[in-house]
Design brief:
Length: 185
């Protein structure tokens, strides 16, 4: 990402909305916004494979593995406003488990892009499925979207919930029910 170009565009935007980019409080804003966008879109410059980095371990158990309340921060691709919330990930390993921090890093890899929550949820589930070939994967995401809260319909208490269930989480009602009850849904 060309931060100098982004900063110049932000300076133009500040002028277009009727502000003075030379005002004391705005002098360094274009560079700060460029730095922020570099971080918030860093998912474009990485991959889940690189994030996982072979942190897969042999496992004898085939019990459900669940990681709850992974913080999610992303930008909606329609308005470039933040959405944020929690992601819950479950899977039943066959022979391999992922290092627990890798689950959170997969969430970050995809959330640090312009996104829609529906796609983000599915990308996380499919990458876990592809990485370790578990019996099944379930991902539930609960997020608040500033594009709905601070503009548009202005519904401050709205929370969007999405899920992606693959393998046994999709095909077996009892597995899906166990997962949903553990995440509180």
């Amino acid at each position: 990402m060309n931060k100098k170009r982004v900063a110049a565009l932000v300076k133009e935007l500040i002028q277009e909305i009727g502000e003075d980019p030379a005002r004391e409080g705005l002098l360094k804003t274009p560079e700060r916004v460029a730095d922020a966008y570099a971080f918030l879109t860093s998912g474009y410059r990485t991959s889940a494979r690189r994030v996982i980095n072979n942190a897969m371990f042999n496992a004898e158990a085939n019990n459900m593995v669940l990681l709850k309340n992974v913080e999610v921060y992303s930008l909606c691709e329609h308005h470039m406003l933040p959405f944020f919330g929690a992601c819950h990930i479950g899977y039943i390993p066959r022979k391999k488990v992922l290092g627990v921090s890798k689950l959170a890093r997969i969430v970050d890899c995809y959330s640090r892009r312009l996104q829609i929550q529906e796609r983000l949820t599915a990308q996380i589930a499919h990458d876990i499925m592809d990485a370790i070939n578990p019996e099944g994967v379930g991902v539930v995401m609960e997020c608040r979207h500033l594009c709905m809260i601070m503009r548009g319909v202005e519904k401050q208490d709205s929370v969007m919930v999405t899920s992606s269930v693959l393998g046994s989480f999709h095909n077996d009602t009892s597995t899906r029910s166990e997962f949903l009850s553990l995440v509180g849904k």
